[in-house]
Amino acid sequence: MNPHDTEVGLSVFELGVSFCDATGDRFNALSGITAQFKPGQVTAIVGPSGSGKTTLLHCIAGILVPSSGVIRHDGVIVSSLGESARDAWRRHNCGMVFQDFRLIDELTVLENVTTPAMFGHYRVPPILRERTRTLIRDFGLPERSVPTSRLSRGERQRVALARALLMDPAIILADEPTASLDRANAASVAGTLEALATQGKAVVCVTHDDLLVSRAHEVISLKAGRMGPPAVDQFPGLRAGDLA
Amino acid sequence: MNPWPIVRAFLVRHRWAALAFVFLVAAGVSLAVALISQERALRTGSTRAADRFDLIVAAPGSPTDVLLTAVFLRPGTTKLLPPEVTVRLLNDKRAAFVAPIGFGDSHRGAPIVGTTSQLVTHLSNELQEGRVFARREEAVVGAASPMKVGETFQPTHGIPRDGNPEEDADPHEHGAMITVVGRMKPTGSPWDSAIMVPVELVWQLHSLPDGHEEGSEAVGPPFDPAQTPGVPAAVVRPTTIAAAYQLRNAYTTNDSMAFFPAEALIRLYSVMGDLRQLMSLLAIVTQALVLMAIVMGVLLLFRFLVPQLITLRALGAPRLFIAAIAWGFTATLVLAGVLLGLGAGYGLSYGVSQWLAADTGVELTPTLASSEYLIAASILATGWILALLPAYVVQRRSLAISLAES
Q1: Interface touch A118/B5, C-beta < 8 Å
Q2: Are the Cβ atoms of A119 and B318 closer than 8 angstroms?
Q3: Residue B59, H or E segment
């Protein structure tokens, strides 16, 4: 079935991205990517460096406009939206998590988590304020007045996860979310992402981490911008049936 | 949207650079503000000090020099009004009173001014304490004089220069023993620190005819035409406004000059005003350059903040939010600098006023008025407009390219 036929969830169809290199020649960063990112599932995007993993993630997030193909989410063709509309779509539908957390160290835990609410409101609405408190409590984060610079790496990634969840997005996009964590913290983050999928969210992770791949419901393997089978020996926990 | 928490965080992160920018703006604003405030304080202070000197008659020369000597009691050399002109002036019916002024002596750094009791009463608008002098060995002191009523002293020949009682003074004491009999009310002028004695005493101490018949101990008018010497200046209180102009014309001759103190002050203010305008223009140009440098500095600082800004964009922040952060960051620096500059400018003006008042005796009261607020507002507006530049540059960065770079 053409995954793009469905109106529900996030899907990409025949996605292509090309760039000009330093000499002015065009090259394909992504080509012919078709996939569906179902609600309730963790999808891992794997592949060697330079294979187009992050480019695909940025396309899904509406950060990068594809050269060809379509990105659709719940009936909205994201790839044809203007920049402002894509910003708004991303703000309300995507929660972003980064390898290096990308928190603002001088802000408190509370302020970092409420950052996405500042984009559209002068005062954080009570419902988002309450949600922030719930997230801080659920993620076992310290007092809200503590600057994030004083937190451990594991705690900082949990703050980043809480920030990604503030607007209750349907899609969680994570770029190497466990890469800078120790095994215990990486396992905790992997468990959280799995739990988010259980709550009905579509979780998409770019990762090299076999632990995270082993928890994925779907795996998209990229090589030179094209989809293909992953090197199974790189991911001992991967089951062949998991491949998208 | 609310970019202020992010702006605050970025200000904290770059606090030392931010403080340096704020101090740069504050330094420029304070200089401009202090300059304008001080010029006005000088103008109002000197106007107030000269307010009760209606018309001054002196030997031909520079009205400014005579004004500084006769009204502001600054040491200086003035030619003497010829005795015949002095006599004619002293008996002119168009004047309510004519007060000759004589200098040449001092006591503990305070100038001793020889004049008439009419001028003392006129300047003080009745005394604060005691009475006016009625004998040659009596004196009235200014409101700020440390001398007390009843105290006696011997005048020293010579007038101190630049606050140094010894310089230019031939430090021998005259034989006379003078008693303080009264104290003037504050006038806000150098006369507050002076010692006023009958002009006859000054003439007598300097071996000049003393204005009265030989052997007479009289003080004040009428003066004997045959015994009246020339004087450095005379303060004239005309009977009417018309009389003031008639006197001014009558004594503007080859042998004398007559002028209203306001005329000389206006010439001084004109020079001061031109200087203020030039300095203000320089201050504004300098400030514009400082603001441009700050804007460039902010752009450099924001290069370090690109990862955070890109993260915000990736989280869904619109370009306007990013522009608001960059604008808010720069605008806050300029606002803090302008406010600090206003305060520092007032403080600087106050300090200079205190110093000048101690040196000249002219009471100076610095204030911040609309012109200072206007220049501060102009700098603020310029800074806020220039702050759009980093806002524009920062929000223009491509999100995808920036993410790839970071």
Answers
A1: yes
A2: yes
A3: none
A118 CB neighbours in chain B (<8 A) are 1-3, 5-6, 321
- What mean pLDDT do residues B234-250 have? 93
Query: How does pLDDT run across B31-56, given as a tens digit for each residue?
Result: 888 888 888 888 888 888 888 889 99
B368 contacts: CB under 8 Å, gap ≥ 6:
B33, B37, B342, B345, B346
Among A118, A128, A156, A165, pick the best mutation site for testing chain B contact (most B Cβ within 10 A). A118
For B306, name the nearest residue in chain A, comparing CA atoms only.
A102
Q: Which residues is B180 bridged to in the sheet?
A: B139
Smallest CA-to-CA distance from A16 within A67, A57, A78, A50 is with A67
Residue in chain B nearest A85 by alpha carbon: B318
Q: ipTM of this complex > 0.90?
A: no
In DSSP terms, which residues pair with B231 in a beta bridge?
B81
The predicted model gives B179-208 an average pLDDT of 90
**Weakest-pLDDT range from A52-61, B212-221, B281-290, B384-393:** B281-290
Instruction: Check A63 against B321: CB less than 8 A apart.
Output: no
Q: What is the pLDDT of residue A118?
A: 92
Average pLDDT for residues B247-269, to the nearest whole number? 90
In single-letter form, the type of residue at position B98 comes to V
Residues of A with CB under 8 A from a CB of B: 58, 61, 63-64, 83-84, 87-88, 90-92, 94, 96, 98, 102, 104-107, 111, 115-116, 118-123, 163, 167
Distance from CA of B384 to the nearest CA of A (A): 21
Strand order in the sheet with A171-175: A94-97, A171-175, A202-206, A42-46, A218-223, A226-227
Q: Residue B159: pLDDT band by 50, 70, 90 thresholds?
A: low
Residue A73 pairs in a beta bridge with A10, A76
Residue among A87, A104, A119 whose CB faces B308 most closely: A104
* Number of neighbours of residue A72 by Cβ within 10 angstroms: 22
Q: Tens digit of pLDDT for each residue in B92-137?
A: 999 999 999 988 888 888 899 999 999 999 988 888 999 999 998 9
B315 to A84: CB separation less than 8 angstroms, yes or no: no
The closest alpha carbon to A40, from A238, A241, A220, A217, belongs to A217
CA B113, B117, B122, B124 dihedral sign is positive
Low-confidence residues in chain A, pLDDT < 70: 1-8, 143-144, 229-244
Dihedral of the CA atoms A202, A14, A179, A19 (nearest 10)?
-140
* Closest approach of B344 to chain A, Cα-based (Å): 30
In this model, does residue B389 exceed pLDDT 60?
yes
- Which residue of chain B is at minimal alpha-carbon distance from A106? B9
Residue of chain B whose alpha carbon sits nearest to that of A64: B400
B400/A118 CB distance under 8 A: no
Residue B12 to residue A106, Cβ atoms within 8 A: yes
Q: B328-372: per-residue pLDDT in tens?
A: 999 999 999 999 999 999 999 999 999 988 887 888 888 999 988
Long-range contacts of A48-54 (CB under 8 A, 24+ apart): A48/A223, A50/A224, A51/A222, A51/A223, A51/A224, A51/A225, A52/A17, A52/A222, A52/A224, A52/A225, A53/A206, A53/A222, A54/A175, A54/A206
The pLDDT value given to residue B169: 47
Is the Cβ pair A118, B315 closer than 8 Å?
Answer: no
Task: Say what the pLDDT of residue B167 is.
Answer: 47
Q: In this complex, do B316 and A116 lie within 8 Å of one another by their Cβ atoms?
A: yes
Give the one of A64, A115, A119 whose C-beta lies nearest to B400's C-beta.
Answer: A64
Confirm if B15 and B329 have CB atoms less than 8 A apart: no
